[in-house]
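User: Predict the complex.
Assistant: Input components as received:
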Amino acid sequence: MDFVNAIILLLNYIFIPALTYGSQLALGAIFVTLIYGILRFANFATGDMMSFGTMATILFTWYFQSLGVSLGVLPTALLAIPFGIIFMIFYMLLIDKFVFKYYRNQKSPPVQFAMVSIGVMFVTQAVVRIIIGPGDRRFFDGEKFIIKAREFKEMTGLNEGLALKSTQVITIFVTIVLVSLLFWFLNRTKTGKSMKAYSDNEDLALLSGIDPKKIVLVTWVIAGILATIGGALYGLDKSFKPFTYFNNMLPIFAAAIVGGIGNPFGAFLGGYVIAFSEILLTYAYKKFFMYVLPESMEPNSLVQLLSTDYKFAVSFSILVIVLIYRPSGIFKGKVL
Amino acid sequence: MRKNLNVIAAYSIMMVLILMVGIFQSWNIALSIFNLCLISAVMTMGANIQWGYAGLINFGIMGYTALGGLAAVLISVDPVQEAWRAGGFDILMSLWLIVVMVLVIRFILKRFEKSKIRTYSIAAIIISGILLIRFSAEPGIEAIEAVDPAKTGFLGGFGLPIIFSWIVGALFAGGLAFIVGKVALGLRADYLAIATLLISEIVIAIIKHEDWLTRGVKNVIGLKRPAPYEVDLQTTDWFIKLVEKFNVGKLSVIENLADRQAALNQLVIEGSSVFVKLCYSGLFLVVVIILLILTQKALYSPWGRMMRAIRDNEEAANAMGKNVVKQHLLIFILGSAIVGIAGAMLVTQDGLFTPGSYRPMRYTFLIWVMVIVGGSGNNFGAILGGFVVWFLWIEAAPISLFLINFFTAGIPETNALKAHLIESVPYFRFLLMGLGLLFIMRYRPKGILPEKIEIK
């Protein structure tokens, strides 16, 4: 019985939260990696673009709520996401036209692109804060829990409860569907393959008649979808605050690079690597050992490797180590 | 003279702007803007050395600034004897452990050939070392943090005058830059940017959460000052006489003696804070001028020429026998050290150390905007960038408030859109910075004062 309790404990506090957080990071990381692979720059406006998409989603959610439209047990935001995506793509294309296109035509070095993306970051941050304000916003409605901890305890008679939030299930489900669609698109369709070719060798791709304008357009569309959904899922699960989204850019970068930047599948796994290592290293295992070990060997400290304050530091340290020993990432970068 | 005309013109415009703030708003605001402009100028000089001279991208400015600030705390605060008695021994033991660990790793690196076993054993030593330190230092840390946590709860510093911390801050930042440079400088430009950004976040995380060293988010307040205190000035005879002398005209108009005394008191209170700010301005100006002379000399020396050669064509410079790796490391350390000085200056001026306030927007990206806008590679440009951008950063809110009111003059006050816009005035500064950066990058990619190299 104790053993089952221990497993439930780990599921509840490590596995499910890490899987959810990892999915959110993974979507962001694929976004970063796509931009890096095809448009060839590190996009420092990632976090703020995600917050822009989330903001659009929130605005539409409020609009639907005011109309009285809802999805019953599911959050209304799911209905608003497609509209948010359209808004986001429109904004991204606008920025591309007025900002990035010029430097692409000039064939500017990646560093200059990165600098420009910082300008975009400032502007996006301002737009989001002016429209919706810097405060904390919750826009979740519908049923909050699928399984409540207390109900689970009563049902199974165990000491440990397992709580399953509906946002966690939605996040994981949506991520799986979205990512499989994306990989199907990249590997099976003609446009997807030409994107890969473009990422691999630009000149060769152009010679074989691939239209660069179309590639760039499709990339921004996919990026818009990923950014909005990733951001909205994070906001549903936790809450929406522009500053948090800016900060999330850092673990997202870490995930993309750990997975090998330019490689979407690597970025996808990288998200989970970062999320799991963050949570595994900062979790206090005291209770776990109390269940597993006999009473005489029970630990009296928290058995925590690092304090939770260092959650971000863990992912950054992993990144730094990967950068030093394997700059191309765990899963070899630059093969879209 | 002629060829420097644009430099002189740009600086005069900047000075006039600050003077206008003094005349129309208040001298207090003008001087605090001026002081922070000077500090920003030091930071931009540091970033400019790295980016403008050598083309190294460092997004970790925040980390070095915070280390400089930490130096100010560790130098100026009086040591907390009780905390030292409670846990000093454990902390010193941990320090020894770290030194031993580093020595062992060095020994292994020297003695054994590169192999998988060596890498793994080094990793094992590091991990077990960290665990060992964690468990051995834990009781000491807890004891230290338990010593009067509302007031101290940390080891304190050395109790020296805070001015020394400007040098120590440079050493701290340079030390960190040495480690970061050794690790990360081989990376490609954009990877280097990300790596330095993340490392600076790690530094901030450590400063925020190691309460025994820095008091963490509980902040250290009431640091010593190199300048006199306002309260003391207000009761000093010579200062009151000085204020009286400056305001003879104003005071002589008032007939009533009691009223005149009250007016004088008010002037003394205002004057004292202006005087203190002027003291800081003087100190900061000295630093800026010394650094400017040094960096200008370096830029036109053979060493500066070599750095430019490395920046413009690394391979060619390498082929000419220049040690690119070594020079990159050197310039990375120098630039970071200058940023460290600025960090210490900032904490000195504020008189408090608040680890929670170090955010990348303000301390990394804003500084980069300054360098790019001002003109990378040109020290006068970088300093000007610091002035212009900081001035706009502070004055953006009043300017945008004015513009909003101007354009919505016909709309009634109760209009929801107008009220919302006025409420979000503070965020227009981000918009202004972003647009400024984008426009400069597009239409004047070399900055307001572009790099100009004269062959003498």
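Chain B has a mean pLDDT of 89.
Let me know if you want any component modeled separately.
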